[in-house]
Amino acid sequence: MPLQLRRLPPHTAVTIDAPARLHLGFLDPNASLGRAFGSLGLVIDTQGTRLEARHAEREQIGGAVSDADRVRIAHCLARLQAAYGPAPVAIDVTHMPRAHTGLGSGTQLALAVGTAFVRLLGHPASSAELAALLGRGARSGIGILGFDAGGLLLDGGPAGMHQRGVPPLLARQPFPDEWRVLLVSDHAREGLHGAEERRALASLAPFPQHLAAHLCHLVLMRILPGAAERDFAPFAQGLTELQQIIGEYFASAQGGVFASPDVERVLRAVAAERAVGLGQTSWGPTGFAIVASASDAEHALSTAREAARALPHIECTVVTGRNSGAAIRCAGAHARRSDAA
């Protein structure tokens, strides 16, 4: 039955720019301290998803989408129509990152489609409500919270291993403007997802309680304070240590501390020359090296490209953090306006 909700003014077209995110690591993958997962993450300024939705006589899905993405969008629309009532819309995707590379493209796409749909119909709905409806946020809330706020984020994990609901936001720090992120991507690989991801998680041994406690300490006493005080050294050291511990835990499932040996090789070359916060986002294959300045980023990029010179499937780029969430632009029948989510 369609949800009966207070209506807002409907719009004729809605454009969504949803930011990508880096998942920087779990604090407690299997609740050894009583609460599962808990995630640290960073919203970045590129590699996001942009789409436009408008009313249409029949459902249309077009633009820069693969067949698999088209199926995902159709699945989202079916759930939205079941909840809010039938309403044919046309979705046109301008750009989105390649799926299963650690940038949160699935959550970006679902929230962008969901937000555009409810804005077109004039229904109020939060990102958390849309995420629950569309099956996002079962383990990490970083993509959902980042859609709303941006920045460096810490969530508290779901209330239980098998419970629904977006993990609560525990902390948000603006990412320092001067810091940069080198991304190293392997276009020949995909990160684990779907049934393979579930099997991989089920195959892992229990996460040691003392390591979960240590990761919590690293986040609360080194990484977040480092970002808050723009003190790069403790931030980078804490993040690299967290990533090494988590990478070793997931190594049996993904083939090593990094899912892509070539990404690891390039990033290790960068880390040998300067202080960085080193790691892999989610299941990869995208890795990252956070550096303290634009100048450091230029040198890191040069080193990375030299290390990847004989690896055409490896792409190296520099991005910045993003301290705002999705940009939402709505067009009405007689006027245009801009909203920020």
TrEMBL record:
Q: Which GO terms describe its molecular function?
A: ATP binding; kinase activity
The keyword Kinase belongs to this UniProt entry's keyword annotation: yes
Its name, as the record gives it, is: Beta-ribofuranosylaminobenzene 5'-phosphate synthase
Identify the Pfam families for this entry.
GHMP_kinases_C, GHMP_kinases_N
Which superkingdom heads the taxonomic lineage of this protein's source?
Answer: Bacteria
What UniProt keywords are attached to this protein's entry? Kinase, Transferase
**Organism annotation:** Paraburkholderia ginsengisoli
SUPFAM superfamilies, alphabetized: Ribosomal protein S5 domain 2-like
